[in-house]
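User: Continuing from earlier, I have the next pair ready.

Assistant: Great, send them over.

User: Here they are, in order.

Assistant: Folding the first of the pair now:
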Amino acid sequence: MGLIQSLNGNWTVFKDPEGKLTEPEIRVKLKEPGEKIQHPVPSNWHAAGFENYSGTVWYCRTFHLKLHRLSLVEFRGADYFTDVWLNGQFLGHHEGYFQTFHIKIPDSLMKDGEYTLIVRVTSPKEEPGPVWPFKKTLIKGIFGHHDCRPGANSHEFGQDMNTGGIWNSVTLMTGLPVRLSGLGVSAELHPVRNQAVLLVQVSYHNSFELPETVPFNFHIVHPDGTKQDATLNLLLKPDSGDFSASFLIENPEKWYTWDTGPQPVYSLTVTSELSGENRINFGIKSVRLDEKKHFFLNGKRLFLRGTNVIPEQLLSTLSSDRIETLAEAMKEAGVNCVRVHAHVNREEFYRICDQKGILVWQDFALQWTYSDSPGFVANAVSQITDMVCQLKNHVSIAVWCCHNEPGDQIHTLDPFLQRAVLAEDATRIVRLASNYEEHPYDGWYWGNAEQYASVPMGPLVTEFGAQGLPEPDSLKKFIPAGSLWPPVWKDWEYHDFQYNQTFNIAGIDRGNSLSQFAANSQSYQSYVLETAIGWYRRKRYQPITGIFQFMFQDCWPSVTWSVIDYYGKRKSGFHTLKRGFEPVHLSVFLRQKTYLSGRELNIALWAINDTWKSVQDCRVEISVSGNQIWESGVFELPDDNLVSFPAEAVQPVLPVIPGPHRLIARLTAGGKILSEYRTEIEIMEKV
């Protein structure tokens, strides 16, 4: 059997800001007397104590082991340029932040004894002006440039909190002549027959000097316990390579979103005497967009209720428990599809989305514009291929998107990326980009929220929203006390607060206290979300086919478009999103909130059903201050459809008693409340 040894733990580290040190000099420094700095691996170096540091860090780890036959060092994530030496011998180089990669240890080093592994990790600051932000060369997406990261778009501070370091696990694998370093599964449903074709793609390393045929056993376990077994004799070339195999699955059990069906799990185990056992889980589904950009899951149309997510600026600190909490909050908010915004996240994030039944729109790690050089294009093609190969086992992924807001690079760079993705995985939707024409920010970057009545942009709306302040207790944790109230705006803006949009476009009243300011800001964010979601859902498929609120949760202590702050506190916008994203939903457009006594209520209603089951025995009821003033007749709410009640069909007379009144509109089925809308109205006496 092979040996798998974790190399996680404390490593000796040396800063090298100018990148001038050499590996022999590092070995000398290791032997010098005196206390050395220790950093935990895995960890981004900012989290380990090198705050706002950009440049090179050398990581050193000494261990004892008997190496024999094939040996590999596996890095699950190192950001950004990585070079590896063992006992003074250079082993390899890697570029990127999200990829799992393997470094092979040569036979010349196979001996019993002490080993010193030295890893140089370089995560530089790109030169402000000539390179950053418009001609970037590092493929780090929102981790390198974004308005929700430390410093926002500031040339001076916009690259703070560098994400460099060995942020994920390091493992030493020895003792087997063959190692399967990558195991990928693609499942494609037959368009007519009740079958799925399973394509298994395997990458390997070996210790062979000549090609050798190896028998591999493939064992598939279906969700119902049914088993499929096959043995294939496969020719492996020396050193490394890949092979593929295909299987037919009869009567496949399909994976669905949490609001449409179950999430059945298949497992695949690949074994041989030379490689041991390798196992993965997978699921089976089909997705497509038609010419109108209607989304179909397993052949049925589905309206996408989405959000954008950037869970954490420092991926080493994102635990499985936090991801689980995030996924549960998305389900609670009615989200059935999440856009992983301009970055590649931890493998655990996708695994939990698989389990929870949340579709994933996966962006590549490109945010705004980059270098136009041929070398950058080649690098981006290589890295987007890595992304697809690494993540395609996750059944939750429905969309690959090559670039966020690329501008003109949608014509020059992104077609190369799209072709590369299609070559690796044609079973998903592959989009060139999510560009500005899909990102309406009415009421924040321009205009006002009422403009959403015209249903701007679309038919897929992949960003919309407004900033909302966290509550005062959260603000006090990250805005310096002397800058909190009255506000020192430069300190707020470092934490992503947008002054011009807040006051000159949104017109938010600062009030007389931090509490008033936070409440006014959250109220405005809720209003924008309620207005946008309302009009978009009323226009489902005419022409809107899906909407993605921006964004769900802060990735660092900041003021952003999120509905959950960095500390997990929910803003009022979360509850607005939750009501607006109900799968079965009563959408209300109240045309006015102040009335003269005895006048008719000015209101329009839509009963919306995003589910695949019709709802029988439905009614809509309106009450004011506890007294019912209107009720619809009994009606059926068809699946994947809506029933509208225009204003001219709903004209109940309001009470004559002046003053404030609570208005409640309810959608019920068989007496059970499915959706409820509450607001305050004012009735005035005619003077």
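And the other member of the pair:
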Amino acid sequence: MKNKDDIFKKVISHAKEYGFIFQSSEIYDGLSAVYDYAQYGAELKNNIRSYWWKAMVQMNENIVGIDAAIFMHPTTWKASGHVDAFNDPLIDNKDSKKRYRADVLIEDYAEKLNQKAEKEIAKAAKRFGDSFDREQFVSTHPRVIKYLAEKEDVLKRMALALDNENLADVKALIEELGIACPVSGSKNWTDVKQFNLMFGTKLGASADSAMDLYLRPETAQGIFVNFSNVQKTGRMKIPFGIAQTGKAFRNEIVARQFIFRMREFEQMEMQFFVRPGEEIKWYDHWKEKRLNWHLSLGLGKEKYRFHDHEKLAHYANAAADIEFDFPFGFKELEGIHSRTDFDLKAHEEHSGKKLQYFDHEVNKSYVPYVVETSIGLDRMFLAVFSTALQDEKLEDGSERVVLKLPSVLAPVKASVLPLVKKDGLPEIAREILDSLKYDFNVNYDEKDAIGRRYRRQDAIGTPFCITVDHETKEDGTVTIRHRDSMEQKRVKISDLRSIIHEEVSVGNWLKNV
């Protein structure tokens, strides 16, 4: 069994070797925490984005999509609180000279306590088998109670300290817990300081007259400032949602873990506008709905868990993360937040424009409350990719590396392979390729032995390989091979489109949501 570090290194290596992700500007030694999506990575990313968009916008009559600009008037970020409050608490280790997010160090410590409790629970479950009562064991076993209680105490104290901006207590907590630098093992820490994460830039023809702007640190504000425009032009009735995907930028000092935390990244967000007082009902609704979307991809229910926030953002009255079990442990994949009416009221105040909704059912105007769902597209890519990458031992004792991507997301849906490069087989293969390419992203491969070509397609996650052989010339059939089972069948060329469609259709997968 490989350890998690080895698994993660293999994920990073495979992503480069097979054309999914490259280091940005690599020929100039790269740029830290900035990555380029390569030929297969761009396709996989597009497919994830499309799967989210169709589930969110196409499948919901009362949700529409927009694409707001990256540049926004600078007062936007004053109103949203980003100018004053968009900070990370950072701490330096004096010996290793490494910088860390103080809250992440504490959260990692708390997660270790959680893992200790889970080990005890797993041992007991194995010992007692079917008669094991998890709830009773967790509430009565002294060591589990101790671990979980300490975890809760640590997170509560951190949340309180950050809420009160008591950075001295955050440092004191790190020291009391004996948290060491992961690199050097040293416990020689500086004080904790706040660091604003926004990238500044300028807009204008000359330095003298240029306006100070920011690259947007999130996509949500583009939705809020367009609330009235969308509501009126779309004749939207509450409850309704506005969705968008797009780039955001954060000057992450502690960018790490490959594409998990980057300086330039992409978000998929939806803001759902509701009547005041109904926000928690909708918050619970979207928690369930979003988890079902994730589960529809079949990555495994055990890979997900909810984490309810102890420390709430200044705008929220409820917040939870859907966490995913990445190769480096459970981390946030998607956030669901009840943002109250903070954003629209703040923009009303700073712009002097009304951002209200007249509700005919209750015969009054009000500023709607908002429930947000926000997922990092790059993190979703990493979740899908790292889970799909598998080493398989085959019955004949050989091994294969296979990327078992959900077929709806796979960059290439089918590869057409002539058995040999003669006897008219390449021409037939090209005809099949031309007939399928209008409906699916398909490729053609004639280099190397057929077994090596299968392995190559396995490694990029292609669900189907279609082999054209001499029998094809006689009866119009081909061999179709399925990536996961490696099962091979003879089928008619005329049946290929329906076979592939059945497996990769977005509609068929979304029915699971």
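Worth noting for the second one:
Residues 102-128 form the longest helix (27 residues). The mean pLDDT is 92.
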